[in-house]
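Batch 3, record 17
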Amino acid sequence: MPMPQTSASLPRPHTLIEFGILSASNPTISLSEFTYTRGSEIYSEKEPIEFVYQVKSGAVRSCKLLSGGRRHIGAFHVAGDFFGLENGDVHRFSMEAMVDTIVHRVRRESLDAAAENDGTLTRDLLRMAATNLGHAEDHMLLLGRKTSMERVAAFLIEMDKRLTTAGILALPMTRRDIADYLGLTIETVSRSLSHLRELGILRFIDNSQRHIVLVDRQQLAGLDRQN
Amino acid sequence: MPMPQTSASLPRPHTLIEFGILSASNPTISLSEFTYTRGSEIYSEKEPIEFVYQVKSGAVRSCKLLSGGRRHIGAFHVAGDFFGLENGDVHRFSMEAMVDTIVHRVRRESLDAAAENDGTLTRDLLRMAATNLGHAEDHMLLLGRKTSMERVAAFLIEMDKRLTTAGILALPMTRRDIADYLGLTIETVSRSLSHLRELGILRFIDNSQRHIVLVDRQQLAGLDRQN
DNA sequence: CGCAGGCTTGACGTCCTTCAACCGTTGTGG
DNA sequence: CCACAACGGTTGAAGGACGTCAAGCCTGCG
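Prediction for the assembled complex:
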Protein backbone atom coordinates (compact mmCIF):
# COMPACT_ATOMS: atom_id res chain seq x y z
CA MET A 1 0.00 0.00 0.00
CA PRO A 2 1.55 3.27 -1.10
CA MET A 3 2.33 5.83 1.54
CA PRO A 4 0.20 8.94 1.15
CA GLN A 5 2.61 11.60 0.03
CA THR A 6 2.63 15.21 1.03
CA SER A 7 2.72 17.46 -2.00
CA ALA A 8 6.27 18.36 -1.05
CA SER A 9 7.61 21.63 -2.36
CA LEU A 10 11.31 22.33 -2.18
CA PRO A 11 12.70 21.09 1.13
CA ARG A 12 13.52 23.84 3.54
CA PRO A 13 16.66 24.13 5.65
CA HIS A 14 16.59 22.45 9.00
CA THR A 15 19.12 24.24 11.10
CA LEU A 16 20.76 27.61 11.30
CA ILE A 17 23.95 25.83 10.37
CA GLU A 18 22.60 24.19 7.25
CA PHE A 19 21.11 27.44 6.10
CA GLY A 20 24.44 29.19 6.34
CA ILE A 21 23.42 31.53 9.12
CA LEU A 22 25.91 29.62 11.17
CA SER A 23 28.85 28.00 9.48
CA ALA A 24 32.32 26.81 10.22
CA SER A 25 33.53 30.17 9.01
CA ASN A 26 31.38 31.96 11.58
CA PRO A 27 32.54 30.53 14.88
CA THR A 28 31.75 33.81 16.60
CA ILE A 29 28.00 33.33 16.70
CA SER A 30 26.74 31.58 19.76
CA LEU A 31 23.61 29.53 19.52
CA SER A 32 21.29 28.87 22.42
CA GLU A 33 18.17 26.83 22.86
CA PHE A 34 15.02 28.15 24.53
CA THR A 35 11.68 26.63 25.42
CA TYR A 36 8.31 28.35 25.44
CA THR A 37 5.13 26.80 26.77
CA ARG A 38 1.86 26.78 24.88
CA GLY A 39 0.36 30.28 24.73
CA SER A 40 3.41 32.12 26.02
CA GLU A 41 4.76 35.20 24.30
CA ILE A 42 8.23 35.10 22.77
CA TYR A 43 8.30 38.81 22.11
CA SER A 44 5.70 41.52 21.67
CA GLU A 45 4.92 44.17 19.10
CA LYS A 46 7.06 47.31 19.24
CA GLU A 47 9.62 45.61 21.44
CA PRO A 48 13.25 46.28 20.42
CA ILE A 49 14.71 43.53 18.28
CA GLU A 50 17.26 41.48 20.22
CA PHE A 51 17.34 38.02 18.70
CA VAL A 52 16.73 36.12 15.52
CA TYR A 53 15.00 32.77 15.96
CA GLN A 54 14.55 29.42 14.31
CA VAL A 55 11.86 26.97 15.35
CA LYS A 56 13.42 23.71 16.49
CA SER A 57 10.13 22.02 17.37
CA GLY A 58 6.58 23.24 17.90
CA ALA A 59 4.89 26.16 16.17
CA VAL A 60 4.46 29.92 16.65
CA ARG A 61 2.17 32.63 15.32
CA SER A 62 2.93 36.29 14.57
CA CYS A 63 0.06 38.63 15.34
CA LYS A 64 -1.17 42.19 15.60
CA LEU A 65 -4.16 43.61 17.45
CA LEU A 66 -6.74 46.21 16.39
CA SER A 67 -9.48 48.01 18.26
CA GLY A 68 -12.61 46.04 19.03
CA GLY A 69 -10.72 42.87 19.84
CA ARG A 70 -9.83 42.30 16.21
CA ARG A 71 -6.72 40.22 15.71
CA HIS A 72 -4.64 39.57 12.65
CA ILE A 73 -2.14 36.74 12.23
CA GLY A 74 0.55 37.46 9.66
CA ALA A 75 2.22 34.07 9.50
CA PHE A 76 2.69 30.71 11.13
CA HIS A 77 6.18 29.34 11.69
CA VAL A 78 6.83 25.64 12.20
CA ALA A 79 9.94 23.49 12.66
CA GLY A 80 12.74 24.77 10.44
CA ASP A 81 11.29 28.24 9.90
CA PHE A 82 13.08 31.43 10.84
CA PHE A 83 11.37 34.37 12.46
CA GLY A 84 12.15 37.69 14.13
CA LEU A 85 14.37 38.71 11.25
CA GLU A 86 13.14 42.22 10.56
CA ASN A 87 15.11 45.21 9.45
CA GLY A 88 13.72 47.94 11.65
CA ASP A 89 14.58 48.62 15.27
CA VAL A 90 11.45 47.12 16.78
CA HIS A 91 9.29 44.10 16.10
CA ARG A 92 6.27 44.71 13.89
CA PHE A 93 4.37 41.70 15.19
CA SER A 94 4.16 39.97 18.52
CA MET A 95 5.13 36.31 18.49
CA GLU A 96 3.45 33.58 20.51
CA ALA A 97 3.93 29.85 20.88
CA MET A 98 0.84 27.92 19.77
CA VAL A 99 2.11 24.72 21.36
CA ASP A 100 5.12 23.95 23.53
CA THR A 101 7.97 25.11 21.36
CA ILE A 102 11.74 24.92 21.30
CA VAL A 103 13.65 27.59 19.41
CA HIS A 104 17.24 28.38 18.64
CA ARG A 105 18.16 32.00 18.81
CA VAL A 106 21.16 34.20 18.09
CA ARG A 107 21.79 37.80 18.98
CA ARG A 108 20.89 40.02 16.13
CA GLU A 109 24.09 42.07 16.45
CA SER A 110 26.28 39.03 16.09
CA LEU A 111 24.38 38.18 12.95
CA ASP A 112 24.85 41.69 11.62
CA ALA A 113 28.52 41.59 12.50
CA ALA A 114 28.97 38.26 10.78
CA ALA A 115 27.14 39.51 7.70
CA GLU A 116 29.53 42.43 7.54
CA ASN A 117 32.33 40.18 6.40
CA ASP A 118 30.38 37.46 4.71
CA GLY A 119 28.71 38.16 1.38
CA THR A 120 27.13 34.73 1.29
CA LEU A 121 25.42 35.29 4.61
CA THR A 122 24.16 38.66 3.46
CA ARG A 123 22.72 37.13 0.33
CA ASP A 124 21.03 34.50 2.48
CA LEU A 125 19.45 37.25 4.54
CA LEU A 126 18.28 38.98 1.38
CA ARG A 127 16.86 35.72 0.10
CA MET A 128 14.97 35.17 3.32
CA ALA A 129 13.56 38.68 3.20
CA ALA A 130 12.42 37.95 -0.35
CA THR A 131 10.77 34.73 0.79
CA ASN A 132 8.85 36.59 3.48
CA LEU A 133 7.85 39.25 1.00
CA GLY A 134 6.62 36.66 -1.48
CA HIS A 135 4.49 35.05 1.20
CA ALA A 136 3.07 38.39 2.23
CA GLU A 137 2.20 39.22 -1.38
CA ASP A 138 0.38 35.94 -1.88
CA HIS A 139 -1.44 36.50 1.37
CA MET A 140 -2.54 40.00 0.36
CA LEU A 141 -4.12 38.52 -2.74
CA LEU A 142 -5.89 35.94 -0.59
CA LEU A 143 -7.18 38.51 1.89
CA GLY A 144 -8.17 41.01 -0.73
CA ARG A 145 -9.89 38.96 -3.37
CA LYS A 146 -10.58 35.35 -2.39
CA THR A 147 -13.77 33.75 -1.10
CA SER A 148 -13.90 31.98 2.25
CA MET A 149 -13.75 28.60 0.49
CA GLU A 150 -10.69 29.58 -1.54
CA ARG A 151 -8.99 30.88 1.59
CA VAL A 152 -9.51 27.72 3.57
CA ALA A 153 -8.41 25.59 0.62
CA ALA A 154 -5.26 27.70 0.21
CA PHE A 155 -4.59 27.39 3.94
CA LEU A 156 -4.88 23.60 3.87
CA ILE A 157 -2.61 23.36 0.83
CA GLU A 158 -0.02 25.57 2.52
CA MET A 159 -0.08 23.63 5.76
CA ASP A 160 -0.10 20.29 3.97
CA LYS A 161 3.19 21.22 2.31
CA ARG A 162 4.67 22.18 5.63
CA LEU A 163 3.51 19.68 8.19
CA THR A 164 1.79 16.60 6.84
CA THR A 165 3.62 13.49 8.05
CA ALA A 166 2.55 9.91 7.45
CA GLY A 167 -0.48 11.16 5.61
CA ILE A 168 -1.82 13.08 8.59
CA LEU A 169 -2.01 16.84 8.77
CA ALA A 170 -1.75 17.70 12.47
CA LEU A 171 -2.60 21.37 12.79
CA PRO A 172 -1.01 23.11 15.77
CA MET A 173 -3.42 26.06 15.60
CA THR A 174 -6.98 26.57 16.78
CA ARG A 175 -9.90 27.59 14.58
CA ARG A 176 -9.49 31.09 15.92
CA ASP A 177 -5.89 31.19 14.77
CA ILE A 178 -6.91 29.99 11.33
CA ALA A 179 -9.70 32.57 11.16
CA ASP A 180 -7.41 35.44 12.16
CA TYR A 181 -4.88 34.26 9.57
CA LEU A 182 -7.48 34.10 6.79
CA GLY A 183 -9.44 37.22 7.69
CA LEU A 184 -12.57 35.22 8.58
CA THR A 185 -14.50 34.15 11.69
CA ILE A 186 -14.16 30.81 13.44
CA GLU A 187 -17.69 29.91 12.35
CA THR A 188 -16.95 30.49 8.69
CA VAL A 189 -13.75 28.45 8.94
CA SER A 190 -15.61 25.66 10.69
CA ARG A 191 -18.38 25.66 8.10
CA SER A 192 -15.87 25.61 5.23
CA LEU A 193 -14.05 22.65 6.73
CA SER A 194 -17.36 20.84 7.32
CA HIS A 195 -18.27 21.45 3.72
CA LEU A 196 -14.95 20.05 2.53
CA ARG A 197 -15.61 16.99 4.68
CA GLU A 198 -19.08 16.57 3.17
CA LEU A 199 -17.51 16.79 -0.29
CA GLY A 200 -15.16 13.96 0.66
CA ILE A 201 -12.10 16.14 0.11
CA LEU A 202 -10.84 15.68 3.65
CA ARG A 203 -11.50 13.58 6.75
CA PHE A 204 -11.28 14.38 10.43
CA ILE A 205 -9.30 11.87 12.46
CA ASP A 206 -10.08 10.39 15.88
CA ASN A 207 -11.63 12.74 18.35
CA SER A 208 -9.34 15.65 17.66
CA GLN A 209 -10.64 18.15 15.14
CA ARG A 210 -7.10 19.26 14.43
CA HIS A 211 -5.95 16.04 12.86
CA ILE A 212 -6.94 15.91 9.23
CA VAL A 213 -6.38 13.60 6.28
CA LEU A 214 -6.44 15.26 2.89
CA VAL A 215 -8.19 12.78 0.61
CA ASP A 216 -8.21 14.69 -2.67
CA ARG A 217 -5.47 17.29 -3.05
CA GLN A 218 -6.26 17.75 -6.70
CA GLN A 219 -9.83 18.77 -5.98
CA LEU A 220 -8.67 20.93 -3.08
CA ALA A 221 -6.28 22.79 -5.36
CA GLY A 222 -9.16 23.25 -7.78
CA LEU A 223 -11.07 25.12 -5.09
CA ASP A 224 -8.27 27.66 -4.84
CA ARG A 225 -7.75 28.50 -8.46
CA GLN A 226 -5.11 31.19 -8.66
CA ASN A 227 -6.29 32.03 -12.12
CA MET B 1 -2.14 82.94 4.41
CA PRO B 2 -0.36 79.82 5.63
CA MET B 3 0.41 77.16 3.08
CA PRO B 4 -1.47 73.96 3.79
CA GLN B 5 1.16 71.45 4.76
CA THR B 6 1.26 67.80 3.83
CA SER B 7 1.74 65.60 6.86
CA ALA B 8 5.22 64.89 5.60
CA SER B 9 6.87 61.74 6.86
CA LEU B 10 10.57 61.25 6.35
CA PRO B 11 11.55 62.52 2.91
CA ARG B 12 12.36 59.76 0.48
CA PRO B 13 15.34 59.64 -1.89
CA HIS B 14 14.86 61.28 -5.21
CA THR B 15 17.28 59.58 -7.53
CA LEU B 16 19.10 56.32 -7.82
CA ILE B 17 22.24 58.29 -7.18
CA GLU B 18 21.07 59.89 -3.96
CA PHE B 19 19.90 56.57 -2.67
CA GLY B 20 23.29 55.01 -3.16
CA ILE B 21 22.20 52.58 -5.82
CA LEU B 22 24.38 54.61 -8.07
CA SER B 23 27.37 56.39 -6.67
CA ALA B 24 30.69 57.77 -7.73
CA SER B 25 32.21 54.50 -6.60
CA ASN B 26 29.93 52.58 -8.96
CA PRO B 27 30.72 54.05 -12.35
CA THR B 28 29.94 50.71 -13.98
CA ILE B 29 26.18 51.00 -13.72
CA SER B 30 24.58 52.68 -16.68
CA LEU B 31 21.35 54.56 -16.16
CA SER B 32 18.76 55.06 -18.84
CA GLU B 33 15.48 56.90 -19.00
CA PHE B 34 12.29 55.39 -20.40
CA THR B 35 8.81 56.69 -20.99
CA TYR B 36 5.57 54.75 -20.74
CA THR B 37 2.19 56.06 -21.81
CA ARG B 38 -0.91 55.87 -19.65
CA GLY B 39 -2.16 52.29 -19.38
CA SER B 40 0.89 50.64 -20.92
CA GLU B 41 2.57 47.66 -19.33
CA ILE B 42 6.14 48.00 -18.10
CA TYR B 43 6.52 44.30 -17.45
CA SER B 44 4.14 41.44 -16.81
CA GLU B 45 3.76 38.76 -14.18
CA LYS B 46 6.06 35.74 -14.52
CA GLU B 47 8.33 37.61 -16.91
CA PRO B 48 12.06 37.19 -16.21
CA ILE B 49 13.51 40.03 -14.19
CA GLU B 50 15.74 42.23 -16.31
CA PHE B 51 15.73 45.70 -14.81
CA VAL B 52 15.27 47.58 -11.58
CA TYR B 53 13.31 50.81 -11.87
CA GLN B 54 12.76 54.12 -10.18
CA VAL B 55 9.84 56.38 -10.99
CA LYS B 56 11.09 59.73 -12.25
CA SER B 57 7.64 61.20 -12.83
CA GLY B 58 4.16 59.73 -13.06
CA ALA B 59 2.80 56.71 -11.20
CA VAL B 60 2.58 52.94 -11.66
CA ARG B 61 0.59 50.10 -10.16
CA SER B 62 1.65 46.51 -9.47
CA CYS B 63 -1.13 44.00 -10.01
CA LYS B 64 -2.14 40.36 -10.19
CA LEU B 65 -5.17 38.74 -11.79
CA LEU B 66 -7.46 35.98 -10.55
CA SER B 67 -10.21 33.98 -12.18
CA GLY B 68 -13.52 35.74 -12.69
CA GLY B 69 -11.91 39.02 -13.66
CA ARG B 70 -10.80 39.68 -10.11
CA ARG B 71 -7.79 41.96 -9.85
CA HIS B 72 -5.52 42.75 -6.94
CA ILE B 73 -3.18 45.72 -6.72
CA GLY B 74 -0.26 45.19 -4.38
CA ALA B 75 1.20 48.67 -4.35
CA PHE B 76 1.32 52.05 -6.02
CA HIS B 77 4.65 53.65 -6.87
CA VAL B 78 5.02 57.38 -7.41
CA ALA B 79 7.92 59.72 -8.14
CA GLY B 80 10.98 58.65 -6.18
CA ASP B 81 9.82 55.10 -5.51
CA PHE B 82 11.73 52.02 -6.62
CA PHE B 83 10.10 48.96 -8.08
CA GLY B 84 10.94 45.71 -9.82
CA LEU B 85 13.45 44.85 -7.15
CA GLU B 86 12.52 41.25 -6.35
CA ASN B 87 14.77 38.40 -5.44
CA GLY B 88 13.36 35.58 -7.52
CA ASP B 89 13.96 34.94 -11.19
CA VAL B 90 10.64 36.23 -12.43
CA HIS B 91 8.33 39.12 -11.54
CA ARG B 92 5.56 38.31 -9.10
CA PHE B 93 3.37 41.19 -10.23
CA SER B 94 2.78 42.89 -13.52
CA MET B 95 3.50 46.61 -13.58
CA GLU B 96 1.47 49.22 -15.43
CA ALA B 97 1.69 52.97 -15.84
CA MET B 98 -1.42 54.70 -14.45
CA VAL B 99 -0.50 57.96 -16.15
CA ASP B 100 2.26 58.93 -18.57
CA THR B 101 5.35 57.96 -16.65
CA ILE B 102 9.10 58.39 -16.91
CA VAL B 103 11.33 55.86 -15.19
CA HIS B 104 15.01 55.31 -14.71
CA ARG B 105 16.15 51.74 -15.00
CA VAL B 106 19.34 49.78 -14.51
CA ARG B 107 20.13 46.20 -15.47
CA ARG B 108 19.60 43.93 -12.55
CA GLU B 109 22.89 42.09 -13.15
CA SER B 110 24.91 45.26 -12.95
CA LEU B 111 23.21 45.99 -9.66
CA ASP B 112 24.00 42.50 -8.38
CA ALA B 113 27.57 42.84 -9.57
CA ALA B 114 27.95 46.19 -7.86
CA ALA B 115 26.46 44.82 -4.65
CA GLU B 116 29.03 42.04 -4.71
CA ASN B 117 31.78 44.48 -3.79
CA ASP B 118 29.79 47.08 -1.92
CA GLY B 119 28.45 46.27 1.51
CA THR B 120 26.68 49.61 1.74
CA LEU B 121 24.72 48.94 -1.41
CA THR B 122 23.77 45.49 -0.16
CA ARG B 123 22.51 46.97 3.07
CA ASP B 124 20.49 49.47 1.06
CA LEU B 125 18.91 46.61 -0.84
CA LEU B 126 18.09 44.86 2.42
CA ARG B 127 16.60 48.02 3.78
CA MET B 128 14.41 48.41 0.73
CA ALA B 129 13.26 44.83 0.98
CA ALA B 130 12.36 45.51 4.62
CA THR B 131 10.41 48.62 3.63
CA ASN B 132 8.41 46.62 1.10
CA LEU B 133 7.79 43.91 3.66
CA GLY B 134 6.61 46.43 6.23
CA HIS B 135 4.17 47.91 3.75
CA ALA B 136 2.89 44.45 2.83
CA GLU B 137 2.35 43.59 6.49
CA ASP B 138 0.37 46.74 7.15
CA HIS B 139 -1.66 46.06 4.06
CA MET B 140 -2.44 42.50 5.14
CA LEU B 141 -3.88 43.88 8.35
CA LEU B 142 -5.97 46.32 6.36
CA LEU B 143 -7.28 43.65 3.99
CA GLY B 144 -7.88 41.10 6.69
CA ARG B 145 -9.55 43.06 9.44
CA LYS B 146 -10.53 46.61 8.52
CA THR B 147 -13.92 47.99 7.51
CA SER B 148 -14.43 49.76 4.19
CA MET B 149 -14.34 53.14 5.92
CA GLU B 150 -11.10 52.36 7.71
CA ARG B 151 -9.56 51.15 4.46
CA VAL B 152 -10.43 54.28 2.53
CA ALA B 153 -9.23 56.49 5.38
CA ALA B 154 -5.94 54.58 5.53
CA PHE B 155 -5.59 54.92 1.77
CA LEU B 156 -6.10 58.68 1.86
CA ILE B 157 -3.63 59.07 4.70
CA GLU B 158 -1.04 57.04 2.81
CA MET B 159 -1.49 58.97 -0.41
CA ASP B 160 -1.58 62.30 1.39
CA LYS B 161 1.89 61.60 2.76
CA ARG B 162 3.17 60.73 -0.67
CA LEU B 163 1.64 63.13 -3.12
CA THR B 164 -0.15 66.08 -1.64
CA THR B 165 1.36 69.29 -2.99
CA ALA B 166 0.13 72.80 -2.31
CA GLY B 167 -2.68 71.36 -0.22
CA ILE B 168 -4.11 69.36 -3.08
CA LEU B 169 -4.08 65.59 -3.24
CA ALA B 170 -4.07 64.74 -6.96
CA LEU B 171 -4.71 61.01 -7.20
CA PRO B 172 -3.26 59.37 -10.31
CA MET B 173 -5.44 56.28 -9.94
CA THR B 174 -9.05 55.54 -10.83
CA ARG B 175 -11.71 54.32 -8.40
CA ARG B 176 -11.18 50.85 -9.79
CA ASP B 177 -7.49 50.99 -8.93
CA ILE B 178 -8.31 52.12 -5.42
CA ALA B 179 -10.90 49.38 -5.04
CA ASP B 180 -8.52 46.67 -6.20
CA TYR B 181 -5.88 48.02 -3.84
CA LEU B 182 -8.24 48.02 -0.86
CA GLY B 183 -10.07 44.76 -1.60
CA LEU B 184 -13.38 46.56 -2.21
CA THR B 185 -15.61 47.47 -5.16
CA ILE B 186 -15.63 50.82 -6.93
CA GLU B 187 -19.11 51.51 -5.58
CA THR B 188 -18.04 51.00 -1.99
CA VAL B 189 -15.01 53.25 -2.49
CA SER B 190 -17.19 55.91 -4.08
CA ARG B 191 -19.73 55.73 -1.28
CA SER B 192 -17.02 55.95 1.38
CA LEU B 193 -15.53 59.03 -0.28
CA SER B 194 -18.97 60.62 -0.60
CA HIS B 195 -19.56 59.97 3.07
CA LEU B 196 -16.24 61.60 3.99
CA ARG B 197 -17.27 64.59 1.90
CA GLU B 198 -20.64 64.80 3.68
CA LEU B 199 -18.79 64.69 6.99
CA GLY B 200 -16.69 67.66 5.86
CA ILE B 201 -13.47 65.68 6.18
CA LEU B 202 -12.54 66.21 2.54
CA ARG B 203 -13.58 68.25 -0.49
CA PHE B 204 -13.58 67.46 -4.18
CA ILE B 205 -11.93 70.09 -6.36
CA ASP B 206 -13.02 71.44 -9.73
CA ASN B 207 -14.67 68.97 -12.01
CA SER B 208 -12.15 66.20 -11.54
CA GLN B 209 -13.09 63.68 -8.91
CA ARG B 210 -9.45 62.80 -8.48
CA HIS B 211 -8.39 66.11 -7.00
CA ILE B 212 -9.09 66.20 -3.31
CA VAL B 213 -8.43 68.54 -0.42
CA LEU B 214 -8.13 66.92 2.97
CA VAL B 215 -9.83 69.28 5.38
CA ASP B 216 -9.47 67.41 8.65
CA ARG B 217 -6.56 64.99 8.78
CA GLN B 218 -7.03 64.50 12.50
CA GLN B 219 -10.57 63.23 12.06
CA LEU B 220 -9.51 61.15 9.08
CA ALA B 221 -6.83 59.44 11.16
CA GLY B 222 -9.49 58.81 13.79
CA LEU B 223 -11.48 56.81 11.27
CA ASP B 224 -8.55 54.45 10.79
CA ARG B 225 -7.74 53.65 14.36
CA GLN B 226 -4.91 51.14 14.35
CA ASN B 227 -5.75 50.23 17.91
C1' DC C 1 -18.75 16.46 39.36
C1' DG C 2 -18.76 20.94 37.42
C1' DC C 3 -16.52 24.13 34.67
C1' DA C 4 -13.84 26.02 30.90
C1' DG C 5 -12.19 25.87 26.28
C1' DG C 6 -12.59 24.47 21.62
C1' DC C 7 -15.65 23.10 17.87
C1' DT C 8 -20.01 22.72 15.26
C1' DT C 9 -24.44 24.03 13.66
C1' DG C 10 -28.59 26.86 13.06
C1' DA C 11 -31.11 31.28 12.78
C1' DC C 12 -30.75 35.84 11.87
C1' DG C 13 -28.47 40.32 10.75
C1' DT C 14 -25.49 43.32 8.20
C1' DC C 15 -21.96 45.13 5.49
C1' DC C 16 -20.48 44.95 1.27
C1' DT C 17 -21.42 43.45 -3.47
C1' DT C 18 -24.23 43.26 -7.49
C1' DC C 19 -27.11 45.22 -10.73
C1' DA C 20 -28.83 49.12 -12.84
C1' DA C 21 -29.67 53.85 -14.03
C1' DC C 22 -27.84 58.21 -14.65
C1' DC C 23 -24.46 62.16 -15.16
C1' DG C 24 -20.36 64.64 -16.87
C1' DT C 25 -16.14 64.53 -19.50
C1' DT C 26 -13.29 62.97 -23.17
C1' DG C 27 -12.24 61.70 -27.53
C1' DT C 28 -13.30 60.36 -32.13
C1' DG C 29 -15.05 59.93 -36.70
C1' DG C 30 -18.49 61.47 -40.08
C1' DC D 1 -18.45 71.08 -35.65
C1' DC D 2 -21.19 68.04 -33.54
C1' DA D 3 -23.10 63.44 -32.65
C1' DC D 4 -22.22 59.81 -29.98
C1' DA D 5 -19.80 56.22 -27.97
C1' DA D 6 -16.55 55.19 -24.29
C1' DC D 7 -15.05 55.96 -19.87
C1' DG D 8 -15.09 57.21 -15.11
C1' DG D 9 -17.88 58.37 -11.31
C1' DT D 10 -22.13 58.56 -8.28
C1' DT D 11 -26.25 56.83 -6.34
C1' DG D 12 -30.17 53.74 -5.33
C1' DA D 13 -32.29 49.16 -4.69
C1' DA D 14 -31.86 44.36 -4.05
C1' DG D 15 -29.18 40.29 -2.98
C1' DG D 16 -25.72 37.44 -0.95
C1' DA D 17 -21.67 35.96 1.52
C1' DC D 18 -19.98 36.27 5.62
C1' DG D 19 -20.58 37.87 10.52
C1' DT D 20 -23.15 37.73 14.88
C1' DC D 21 -25.65 35.50 18.31
C1' DA D 22 -26.97 31.50 20.53
C1' DA D 23 -27.37 26.67 21.72
C1' DG D 24 -25.31 22.37 22.24
C1' DC D 25 -21.53 18.74 22.12
C1' DC D 26 -17.14 16.93 23.49
C1' DT D 27 -12.86 16.72 25.95
C1' DG D 28 -9.75 17.82 29.52
C1' DC D 29 -9.03 19.10 34.14
C1' DG D 30 -9.17 20.97 38.92
